[in-house]
C-alpha cells in the first residue's frame, strides 16, 4: 500500500493492482489494458485457453511458465527504470525497485527449478 499511496501523492497512474489478480481493470486504479499494450500482470487469451485445457502436471508447467514470464516483466520494468536518465532518484522509488528486482529474480530462479523438476517427470 505504501507504493500505491506514494504514486497517488505524486499524481502517477497506478498500473496493475487488483486487476492483476481478478482479470478486470479497476477504473480508479488507472490500469492500462489497451490493445497491443503488453502488461506484465495478465496472461493473454491463448495462455488462458491453454490453462483451461491443461490438467495436473501440465497445468503446473503452464502455470510456472506463465508466472516466470510475469516475473520477467517486472524485472524488465526495473531494468528499464534504472536505464532511464534521472529515474529512481528518490529513496522510496529506488528502494522499491531494488526490492522488486531482488525478489522477482529469486522467484524466477525458484520457479525455474520447480519447472525443471516437473519437466524431468518429478514433482517439486
How many helices in DSSP terms?
Answer: 5
Number of self-contained structural domains: 2
Average of per-residue pLDDT values:
74
> Which class best fits the helix and strand makeup?
mainly alpha
- How can the largest sheet be summarized? none
Distance from N terminus to C terminus (CA atoms, Å) equals 32 Å
What is the helix fraction of residues, given as a range? 55-70%
| Rg, Cα atoms, Å | 17 Å
From the structure above, extract its key features.
124 residues; mainly alpha
Overall description:
63% of the residues lie in helices and 0% in strands. The two termini are 32 Å apart. The chain contains five helices and no strands. Mean pLDDT is 74; it is low at 16-40. The chain has two domains: 1-41, no CATH class; 43-124. The chain has 124 residues and is mainly alpha-helical. Helix 3 packs antiparallel against helix 4 and helix 4 (56-83) runs antiparallel to helix 5.
Amino acid at each position: 500500500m505504501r507504493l500505491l499511496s506514494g504514486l497517488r501523492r505524486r499524481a502517477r497512474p497506478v498500473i496493475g493492482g487488483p486487476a492483476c489478480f481478478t482479470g478486470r481493470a479497476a477504473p480508479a486504479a488507472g490500469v492500462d489494458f489497451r490493445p497491443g499494450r503488453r502488461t506484465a500482470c495478465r496472461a493473454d487469451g491463448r495462455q488462458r485457453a491453454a490453462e483451461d485445457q491443461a490438467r495436473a502436471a501440465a497445468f503446473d508447467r503452464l502455470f510456472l511458465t506463465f508466472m516466470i514470464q510475469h516475473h520477467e516483466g517486472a524485472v524488465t520494468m526495473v531494468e528499464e527504470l534504472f536505464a532511464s536518465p534521472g529515474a529512481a532518484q528518490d529513496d522510496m522509488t529506488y528502494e522499491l525497485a531494488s526490492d522488486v528486482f531482488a525478489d522477482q529474480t529469486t522467484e524466477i530462479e525458484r520457479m525455474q527449478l520447480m519447472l525443471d523438476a516437473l519437466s524431468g517427470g518429478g514433482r517439486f
